[in-house]
Write a structure and sequence with these properties.
heterodimer, A: 259 residues, alpha/beta, Rossmann fold, nine-stranded mixed sheet, 32% helix, B: 527 residues, alpha+beta, Dna Ligase, domain 1, five-stranded mixed sheet, 14 helices, 29% helix
Chain lengths: 259, 527
């Protein structure tokens, strides 16, 4: 913090005797002035993260490609870290909604294109804020333009293409994703996606033969990212309707028997 | 115009109330049996027929013909039909009464400003006596104008207050007027029966106390009335004494906010039309803003030379700025192109709201400008009904529990999601809800269709399930149900008796099935 320096020029005109008194007065005045301009107590040092964030914002406004990470719901943080400017492919609507829940809770807008049968109550259950959600259930042939248009509004768009997207379409959309600082989750195949998430195992709990009801589901998510494949066991959703990593210590009886 | 002279009445009742310039003199226009007139006008019925308007099973108003036959207000439907078998029964429609009365109000507003609608069928205005040279003359002018506007049955009363003037109007003959001189209200009202006060409880009580006329009531000391009957009683006491100083709140005539622009010569291409409409759109927004209003819904009409009219309503989730209107005109012309050169374009605000309800927050609005513009662009591409805003509502099946409404139209949920909905499947909610249920086959172990009896019992446990038209049979891993729902059993047209099941297949998929009349459907998938 810089203290403002005040320089005062006094023409004493040879009044030698009063000099000591005048000097004393000047020093008092200077101290008072300095005190007036001293903000040291209220200022705070800008943290490096804040500077980084501002730099990112400047670059984003300039249109240069800088990707930022999107929030995710607590249970999914170990599965994948979503970044803007990238496209992700999933094979399950639950997974798509779970991925969108984090950004939605962080205040981002969500777009849903081409999925008329997506359960909105389930979306709200996963944590998507429906107030900030735009749904285009039947875009028809215009699905790519609609998705591109929605990127102006939403930071995360869930799309279910009626026909598999071509590599060229994917590349064009990716450029737009980078420009608009948004992420795409495709329910289906997506050429050259950043990561592909598939449910390799899924079993529902709570249902018997003629009794009970569906309460929770344990799944194994395979994440193929950059050549490597990771497998994560998840509750999607758990008994408390939240997404959580499966506790390895307590394996449900049914699974233990199956394994 | 003849004025009915109240022969043999009190000398106070006369026609000399022409000291103009005093504000208290009220002219009341009363249209008798207005609910009947409104309903008959709407349905195109003749008023010469015996008609009666019913409200909650009782006669609310009836035509003169029905009255001759003995139909009276407050009569039950059966009694009224017994007195007059050819009676036409009409249901009361308050909205239509108000709407029809609007024509009367605007007819009066053409000659006199400041009309105060009291209720449908009754309105008051200050007597424009100085302008027309007297109260009688003013009433004559009003009557003439109303007849010219097609209103036939009305009576005019002029007195010191609305209450007295209304009862004076009831004395008058059709299309005629009855004037009570200044200061004569109390004497005039004293002769009226106590039943004219519109408070049944008070009237009954007063009758029991032996008070039969307003004059008897007025004779009581104001202080005693206040202590015995409270504030409301005191107000009625003031009315009975002719001290009706209820202020007349005149309505503001509805604004004509429609804007239009004509093109000569007619224009063919979109761009010049849009360009030429810019000023009109700006004028509309400015005109509304001048009155502190904003437009949230607008109808755009495009008229071509050949008489073709393209019309469409556009809604905005905030309100239309001039540029938004221009966008909508552009989209409409592109989406629904006129086949001939366009000669006129009209902007008709369908719903306007107060600017105060739409003010920007201190830190800007929650809904960003860029979101609005982005969605508006999509609506331009696909049409406004294709870009939807989701919300949740109450209901028993997953499809009923969600609601998609066009973006910008604040459509409220039809059913309250907060209420308990017995019969709903508890969470987790299914991730896929089919917009049309998928036909399904459910078979037992011995490959026979599983049925659910009307008592909610199953003929066999489901062992195989086939979802979709030509799907393969899948062995059932686990199942639960039936959960019967007997919906709307009181309404034969909408009643549904269904039973729901949750089923998981051996491949780990989970489904929500419903059976109705032995036909199985898949409503949703837990995907």
């Amino acid at each position: 913090m810089h203290k403002p320096t005040t320089t005062l020029y006094w023409d004493y005109g040879g009044l030698g005797q009063d000099r000591a008194i005048s000097n004393a007065c000047v020093s008092v005045v200077l101290t008072m002035l300095e005190c007036m301009f001293d903000y040291e107590r209220v200022s705070s040092q800008p943290t490096p993260s804040r500077i980084h964030e501002l730099q990112q914002r400047v670059q984003r406004m300039q249109g240069s490609a800088i990707s930022r990470s999107l929030e995710s719901v607590p249970g999914l943080s170990g599965v994948i870290q979503l970044r803007t400017g990238e496209a992700y492919a999933v094979d399950s609507p639950s997974l798509a909604m779970a991925l969108a829940a984090g950004p939605s809770q962080a205040g981002e807008w969500i777009g849903i294109v081409g999925a008329p049968d997506l359960g909105l109550e389930a979306a709200a259950g996963f944590g998507i804020d429906l107030e900030r959600t735009v749904v285009v259930p039947r875009p028809g042939e215009l699905w790519l333009s609609v998705t591109a248009g929605l990127l102006d509004v939403a930071s995360m768009v869930i799309v279910k293409p009626p026909v598999p997207a071509s590599a060229q379409q994917a590349e064009r959309l990716k450029a737009r994703l980078r420009m608009k600082d948004a992420a795409l989750v495709c329910w289906g195949e997506w050429p050259r996606s950043e990561a592909t998430l598939t449910l390799t195992e899924s079993s529902w709990h709570g249902l018997g033969r003629g009794h009970g009801r569906l309460t929770a589901r344990s799944v194994v998510v395979s994440v193929r990212q950059g050549g490597a494949v990771r497998r994560i066991q998840l509750w999607l959703p758990g008994l408390d309707q939240q997404i959580a990593e499966l506790d390895h210590v307590v394996v449900p009886l049914a699974m233990a028997q199956a394994g | 115009m003849t004025v009915t002279k109240p022969d043999g009445r009190q000398s106070e009742v006369s026609f000399h109330g022409e000291q103009s310039g005093t504000p208290k003199r009220q002219l009341v226009i009363w249209c008798p049996d207005w609910p009947v007139v409104a309903a008959a006008t709407q349905l195109g019925l003749s008023l010469q027929l015996p008609l009666a308007v019913f409200d909650r099973g009782e006669v609310f108003a009836c035509s003169a013909m029905a009255r001759v036959e003995g139909v009276r207000r407050g009569m039950r439907r059966r009694d009224a039909s017994a007195r007059c078998p050819e009676l036409t029964v009409l249901e009361r429609n308050t909205a239509s009464e108000i709407r029809t009365f609007e024509d009367v109000l605007s007819a009066i507003e053409e000659i006199s400003a400041g009309v105060a609608p009291v209720r449908p069928g009754l309105c008051a205005l200050r007597v424009p006596s100085r302008f027309y040279g007297g109260e009688k003359e003013a009433a004559a002018v009003v009557a003439e104008h109303l007849v010219g506007a097609g209103v036939w049955d009305f009576r005019i009363g002029i007195a010191d207050g609305i209450f007295a003037a209304e009862h004076a109007a009831r004395r008058a003959a059709s299309q005629d007027c009855w004037i009570i001189a200044r200061g004569g209200s109390a004497v005039f009202l004293a002769a009226l029966p106590i039943g004219v006060l519109e408070n049944a409880e008070l009237v009954t009580l007063l009758r029991q106390l032996g008070i039969r006329s307003l004059g008897d009531f007025a004779a009581l000391a104001a202080r005693d009335v206040l202590t015995r009957f409270g504030r409301e009683g005191a107000l009625f006491h003031r009315l009975a004494r002719g001290l009706d100083n209820q202020p007349v709140l005149s309505r503001r005539p509805p604004l004509d906010m429609n804007q239009q622009v004509s093109f000569t010569p007619a224009l063919e291409t979109v761009e010049p039309i849009v360009f030429s409409t810019r000023q009109t759109a700006e004028r509309l927004v400015a005109e509304l803003a001048h009155h502190g209003l904003v437009c949230t819904e607008v109808r755009i009409e495009v008229v071509t030379e050949g008489g073709w009219t393209g019309s469409r309503v556009w809604a905005h989730s905030r309100w239309f700025a001039a540029s938004d209107l221009i966008d909508r005109i552009y989209w409409q012309l592109q989406g629904d192109p006129a086949r001939e050169p366009v000669c006129e374009l009209r902007l008709l605000p369908e719903s306007v709201e107060s600017l105060a309800d739409h003010g920007e927050g201190l830190w800007g609005s929650a809904l960003n400008e860029h979101v609005e513009r982005g969605i508006a662009r999509l609506q331009g591409m696909l049409g406004p009904e294709e870009v939807l805003a989701p919300c949740l509502q109450g209901g028993r099946n997953p499809r009923d529990r969600q609601l998609l409404s066009p973006w910008g139209e604040r459509r409220p949920p039809q059913r309250n999601p907060q209420l308990p909905w017995p019969g709903t499947i508890p969470p987790p909610a299914p991730a896929r809800v089919f917009s049309t249920p998928v036909p399904t086959v459910v078979l037992s172990e011995d490959r026979r269709p599983v049925k659910v009896t009307s008592r909610g019992l199953m003929t066999a446990a489901p062992a195989f399930v086939s979802i979709g038209e030509e799907a393969e049979l899948m062995p059932v891993d686990a199942w639960a149900g039936p959960w019967p729902v007997d919906e709307l059993w009181w309404d034969p047209a909408q009643a549904r008796q269904v039973a729901r099941f949750q089923v998981t297949g051996v491949d780990g998929s989970a489904w929500l099935l419903v059976v109705e009349n032995d036909q199985w459907w898949t409503e949703a998938r837990y995907d």
